[in-house]
Amino acid sequence: MMGIIKEPLEIDFEVDNRPLTKEEEQMISDFIRLKKEQQSQKPKPPSSKRSKPKKQGA
After folding, report:
1. pLDDT at 24
2. For residue 57, what pLDDT is reported?
3. Which residues are CB-contacts of 20 (< 8 A; sequence separation ≥ 6)?
4. The model scores a pTM over 0.70
5. Residue 7: partners with Cβ closer than 8 Å, 6 or more residues away
6. Among the listed residues 18, 37, 34, the one whose alpha carbon sits nearest the alpha carbon of residue 26
7. Under 8 Å CB-to-CB from 13, ≥6 apart: which residues?
8. pLDDT digits (tens, 9 = 90+) for 8-34
9. DSSP the chain
10. How many C-beta atoms surround the C-beta of residue 58 within 10 A?
11. Helix (DSSP H) and strand (DSSP E) numbers for the chain
12. Interior angle at CA 50, CA 45 and CA 55, nearest 5
């Protein structure tokens, strides 16, 4: 869930609310596709979930 971000007093955030051009859309799509490909090629770290030995009760 997204919350409200407090804007620092010394910084003004401006939003350019214009539609993207076809070239900009294509650049963003290419970037996302490349990042997904790179992420899927990374070897996954071995699972560190180890079963804990059960406590033997009294």
Report:
1. 95
2. 63
3. 28
4. no
5. 13
6. 34
7. 7
8. 788 877 887 889 999 999 999 999 999
9. ---PPPPPTT--------PPPHHHHHHHHHHHHHHHHHHHHSPPPPP---PPPPP---
10. 2
11. 1, 0
12. 170
Which residues contact residue 24 at a Cβ distance below 8 angstroms, ignoring those fewer than 6 apart?
none
Q: Bigger pLDDT: 53 or 34?
A: 34
Say how far apart CA 28 and CA 25 lie, in whole Å.
Answer: 5
Structure token digits, residue 15:
């939003």
Q: What is the C-alpha separation between 15 and 2, in angstroms, rounded?
A: 18
Q: Are 28 and 36 in contact (CB under 8 A)?
A: no
pLDDT tens-digit series, residues 30-41:
999 999 999 888
Q: Tokens for 45, please give them.
A: 């770290």
